Amino acid sequence: MSVIYSQRKVYPLFEALVDLEATTNFVDRVIMENNNLVTYKLANLYCVINVDGTSNKIGYITEYVQAYVEIGSHRMT
Prior knowledge:
77 residues, mainly beta, four-stranded antiparallel β-sheet, two-stranded antiparallel sheet, 6 strands
């Protein structure tokens, strides 16, 4: 599935895995780095809990991106 992501008026296109069961939208660090996405520090760390109830091995989320994600005609922030 192709996902259009944009922080600015230029619309880079890249393939992404979308987890439709997640309650929050996440962007992989590799995608952030490879696409030079602007990040902001979170005021509070965000702990990701896996479906089996354990903490994610990557650790806490410390940054976020402010962006639009567009899938087909559906657009969300």
